[in-house]
Amino acid sequence: MTKKRILILVETSRAFGRQIIQGISQFALEKGSWIVLLEDHGFFDRIPLWMKGMQFDGIVSRTTSTDSAKFLGTLGVPVVELLGDGLHRSCDVLTDNVLVGSLAAAHFHDRGFRQFAYFSTGHSWWSQMFHDAYCRRLHELGFGCHTSPLCKERREPALPITLRNNTEIGIVDWLTKLPKPVGLFCPSDSQAIFILNLCQAANVKVPHEIAVLGVENNSILCNATAPPLSSIAADGWAVGYQAAKLLETKIEKRPLPGLPILIPPTGVVPRQSSDIVAVDNADVAKALHYISTHPGLRITVKDVARHADVSLRTLIRKFKDILKRSPEEEIRRVCMERAKLLLYDTNLSMAKIAENLGYSSTEYFIRAFRREVGTTPRAFRQALRSDEDS
Q: Which domains does the chain have, with CATH numbers?
């Protein structure tokens, strides 16, 4: 059997790129007929000179420049593109950016925010998709969005953050003038971290004044920020596996599926940068603070009412009027968010997590998690931590 030579031009410098490579490697292992050619590759690196003149049967690439996109188009071999410039080469397999934008809007709205913002260092095609989906979902909910002026600038797909000091001053001015509290969504973790750093320098309180959410969920970076960054986790492994599967289809000249192939994100991983519920009512705010600082089932609705110093009936009515959910539903929601964080950021066993959250048994916790999240705790942990061993 003749082996196929497959070139992988995907960055090894970022968590998402390594997840993609893992997915490609799994397909190659199952196929048994691929020779995968790969080297350390930075996100902004040009196509290596050594590949020019070499023969390949197919290429999987995350192209970050127009020049690279044009060059790949001259090679005459099947290429599966995972980024592209939106002009000379389109993306074949990607995270469902529309769903990501909708999740971001829901994340802030569910926490009671009524002011929303979007920041990007310049619009690429994928940043535009995030922005449009985010704004569209907010419009459906009856709200608008404050968009950073920088978003109007057209840039390369990678959106490198190379901003001058006077530009940073303009961003700080925009941040300080935003109505507060506000939920701010960024199309990548790196840009969200950039915002966190500016907020810290300008003494803007996160999350109390500006709650921040990124995309990708690079656990090392997200947990190193002050405060730790909430992020939407993209499923890089699935992107890589489907990319390899599509490349095999192209090589064998079989009918192609509908493109692009969309991979849903695995969900929001909440951390302290958005760990707040924004409401104007003092009683509800006090109740929500109590629930958020006592995540689990050990507290009851009566405990919450007592802490907020209101009657049980008044508490339930105000929750329904303001949050459109009951105090009991909020207790369960916060409990599930805490469970997700423990599953991702710790190695605690299911039994320990169940005990931590006040469940009467591990089995009860697993059933409750499956009912609320749609998957088992173990499967949720495996999906989000697929990059941990890379």
A: 4-95+236-263 (3.40.50.2300), 97-234+267-274 (3.40.50.2300), 282-384 (1.10.10.60)
